[in-house]
Amino acid sequence: MTAGRREPLALGLLRRFCAANGLAVVAEPDFGYAGYIEAGNGRRHFFKGAGFDLNGAGASAIARDKGYSTSFLAGAGLQVPRSLLISTPRYLADIRIKNPAVAARLSGPAEALAFAASVGYPVFLKPNEESEGRGVLRAADALQLSAALDQLGPAYDRLLLQEEAQGRDYRILMLDGACLAVFERWPFRVTGDGRQTLRDLIEQETARFAADGKGRKILPDDPRILTHLAAAGLHLDSVPPAGQAVALLPNSNLSSGGTARDVTARIAPDLVRIAAEAGRTIGLRFFGLDLIAPDIASAEGYRILELNAAPGLSHFHRLGPSEAATVEEIYARVFAAIARDLMA
Predict the structure, then answer these.
(1) CA 69 to CA 304: how far, in whole Å?
(2) Where would I find the ATP-grasp domain in this sequence (predicted)?
(3) Based on CB atoms within 10 Å of each CB, which residue in 15, 221, 266, 332 is the most buried?
């Protein structure tokens, strides 16, 4: 690493593991974001960010494609929200030039509005191949959905439209069919004091995020925040009453300011089996499964939102000492699986 730069969490833990187990680590020097592990027999295991060679390239690509992965999960009998893959006007125009027959089979904004009317509002609209909650919008009616389509359409080729799943938000971390940890998550939110505007409260909270040197994560005028507040009849100059919690985003990603707590001890065995089956369906060994359920202690009413083939854990690590210990144990088990593959 370049002098003065802080090494990524996973890389630091990986160096420690490899030093203790006779393995070598080579990482690109500027950021430590990509590299490989090498065993004495010359075999290598490559990594980039939070992605490891434990998952195949094809399986990882399908997991990243929310439309395909949702279709495969539904085909395996697993419960997912009713969904429709939308092609944006720009993308449809391009496909019509190349292959009019294919373009005629694709769904566009008109089909999106019809789908939402059939499943009922609210609905969620998200980029088909994005991560960390980027571009996720919630629409409470046709007007808001049309606005969301207009907002995301110029930036993306395909969008996934889904009915809203009712319940609490969980991330289940799995490795080779075993549950490593479960976190319950909440969206980025602030609590009113009856005096300050939402803008002021958000500024204070994001400044707290930046105190650890990792940046503010999100700005008050982020379009996702503005859209979510508008759907609730609020704006940045609104002054929430004392004690009132205001959710600022429709998704619970920690990378955009969300928070979480460890609920591993409460997960129902049936949900562990469901998560393992989801991984087998897509072909993943190490992954995070995002799930909505009334309670993690029961499989009743669950809906799988998506699978992440490269689950980042640094945000969980910073939640507190017990969470940090959990994350370090997860990485130790992941690295042990990599070592076994290298020596097999």
Answers:
(1) 10
(2) 70-336
(3) 15
